[in-house]
């Protein structure tokens, strides 16, 4: 049974409101980084928002191994982070009035703002592609 493990980010405002982008979860012990900006080639591309820098921010996911049990082999936990990439207008999380300084941990369900665009880190999910529910 092959599982399709995804991380998703949902647009919560702007012309793409409601659109969901999906990215592969990193393998256990690895990290994946999603680039966010106005530059073509960014993983989350925001050409419509003139408050967004070419490379504005990075959203990362670390897949960390944890202790196995008799019932669970190869368990892991996903840790998420967000950092501003020295953007002109800053990166904001939830209702914070001050822009990010350095890297901050995020939990699934967190809203963050890049320029004028609100995004949400969704709860990660894994599913079997043959499951009729998906």
Question: What is this structure, in a nutshell?
Answer:
This protein is an all-beta fold and 134 residues long.
> Termini distance?
15 Å
By oligomeric state, this entry counts as single chain
Helix content: under 10%
Using the alpha-carbon principal axes, give the shape: elongated
- Tell me, rounded to a whole number, the average pLDDT: 88
Count of β-strands: 11
Q: Please, how many domains?
A: 1
Beta content comes to: over 45%
Low-confidence stretches: 127-134
**Tally of contiguous helical segments:** 0
The largest sheet, given as strand count, sense and whether it forms a barrel, is: 6 strands, antiparallel
Judging by the overall fold, what is the CATH architecture? Answer: Sandwich
* Rg estimate, integer Å: 16 Å
**Secondary-structure element order, as H and E?**
EEEEEEEEEEE
SSE arrangement:
Elements (H helix, E strand, L loop, with lengths): L2 E9 L8 E5 L6 E7 L6 E2 L11 E9 L10 E9 L6 E3 L9 E4 L4 E4 L2 E5 L3 E4 L6
Parallel strand pairs: 3-4
Antiparallel strand pairs: 1-2, 1-10, 1-11, 3-5, 5-6, 6-8, 7-9, 9-10
Describe the structure.
With 134 residues, the protein is mostly beta strands. It has one domain: Tumour Suppressor Smad4 (Sandwich). 0% of the residues lie in helices and 46% in strands. It has no helices and eleven strands. The strands form two sheets. Strands 1, 2, 7, 9, 10 and 11 form a six-stranded antiparallel beta sheet that branches. Strands 4-3-5-6-8 form a five-stranded mixed beta sheet, with no helix packed on it.
């Amino acid at each position: 049974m092959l599982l399709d493990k995804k991380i998703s980010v949902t647009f919560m405002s702007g012309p793409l409101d409601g659109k969901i982008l999906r990215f592969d979860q990193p393998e256990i012990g690895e990290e994946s980084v999603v680039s966010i900006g106005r530059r073509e080639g960014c993983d989350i591309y925001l050409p419509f928002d003139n408050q967004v820098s070419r490379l504005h921010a990075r959203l990362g996911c670390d897949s960390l191994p944890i202790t196995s049990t008799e019932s669970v082999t190869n368990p892991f936990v996903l840790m998420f982070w967000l950092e501003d990439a020295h953007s002109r207008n800053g990166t904001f999380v939830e209702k914070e009035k001050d822009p990010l300084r350095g890297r901050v941990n995020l939990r699934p369900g967190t809203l963050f703002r890049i320029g004028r665009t609100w995004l949400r880190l969704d709860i990660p999910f894994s599913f079997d592609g043959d499951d009729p529910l998906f």
